[in-house]
Design goal:
- It is a single chain.
- It contains 3 helices and 21 strands.
- The relative contact order is 0.18.
- With 278 residues, it is mainly β.
- The radius of gyration is 21 Å and the shape is elongated.
- It is 12% helix and 42% strand.
- It folds into 2 domains: 54-162, Lipocalin (Beta Barrel); 165-277, Lipocalin, CATH 2.40.128.270.
Length: 278
């Protein structure tokens, strides 16, 4: 894909500051269920007694018992997976290996993406990195996690409770990023691409320039889209490039699909789309 701007390539740098985070099915019968899990916020049947392979979102931050407000619109997000930790405070993404020793969270040198941040979020990134580097104590109570170091306490809630995965059917999904290998391109200003899946198997789509519809079916985590019909407007420039990228994914025979909270990811052979529920 060429000349989609602006283009953001996540490059991990040693933390020292932040300068910039089978053939297609027939049209019938229509699917009878959307992608699980649904938007219900009920907790899992059994709650893991470990932080491993879980993600947590902050619910409060205090320093010496006094609330420490986060930058407006931001939230601390920490993910523990296969011995690796990733965390963010609203701008860059930090990562490294982790372990729990004598009740404390221990990490190696963190790496960080180099996205441009406004000064308040830049400072918040640095504050969170310093907090994690101070080896905070870890207290897990079911779905609630508390990290404490030097009088600062960050309380968090399991992401599946704080932000349940949405169903595929219902939301209008708006394109936010186009993925090509390791590169993630943001959607150019003024270009809008949307998808909406209905319970009867219909797909309404506006891939960036034209508009149309199709059919969808979901089986074993694989999405198939057929019978796409679009208007035939000429689409020069960025709108045409976005539309080509969207259709290259939607017209594939098999599309891998994942929903995490309000983000829908569609991928085909290293290329994909990221959309957010509206």
């Amino acid at each position: 894909m060429s000349k989609l701007a602006p283009v953001l390539i996540l490059v991990l740098a040693t933390l020292g500051g932040c300068t910039a985070s089978s053939s297609p099915p027939t049209a019938s019968p229509p699917p009878t269920a959307s992608l699980p899990p649904t938007a219900a916020a009920s907790p899992p049947a059994s709650t893991p007694a470990t932080i491993d392979d879980r993600e947590f979102l902050s619910t409060s931050v205090t320093e010496a018992g006094v609330e420490r407000p986060l930058v407006a619109g931001t939230r601390i997000r920490i993910n523990f997976a296969a011995g690796n930790l990733t965390l963010s405070a609203g701008c860059n993404i930090m990562g490294g290996h982790y372990g729990v020793e004598d009740g404390r969270l221990v990490t190696d040198t963190l790496s960080m993406t180099e996205m441009g941040c406004d000064p308040p979020r830049h400072a918040q990134d640095e504050w969170l990195a310093a907090f994690i580097g101070a080896r905070p104590t870890v207290r897990l109570d079911g779905n609630e996690l508390a990290l404490e170091a030097d009088g600062t306490v960050i309380k968090l809630l399991d992401r599946e409770i704080a932000e349940p995965d949405l169903a595929l059917v219902g939301p209008t999904w708006t394109l936010t990023s186009i993925v090509s290998g390791d590169a993630v391109s943001s959607v150019p200003a003024g270009v809008v691409a949307r998808l909406q899946f209905t319970q009867d198997g219909q797909l309404q789509l506006a891939p960036g320039c034209n508009q149309g519809s199709g059919r969808w079916a979901l089986e074993d985590g694989i999405l198939r889209i057929t019978d796409i019909g679009l208007t035939r407007m000429a689409c020069p420039g960025a709108a045409g490039q976005v539309e080509a990228a969207v259709l290259s994914v939607l017209q594939a025979e098999q599309i891998a699909i994942q929903i995490e909270a309000s983000v829908l990811s569609l991928s085909v052979d290293g290329h994909g789309l990221q959309l957010t529920a509206q």
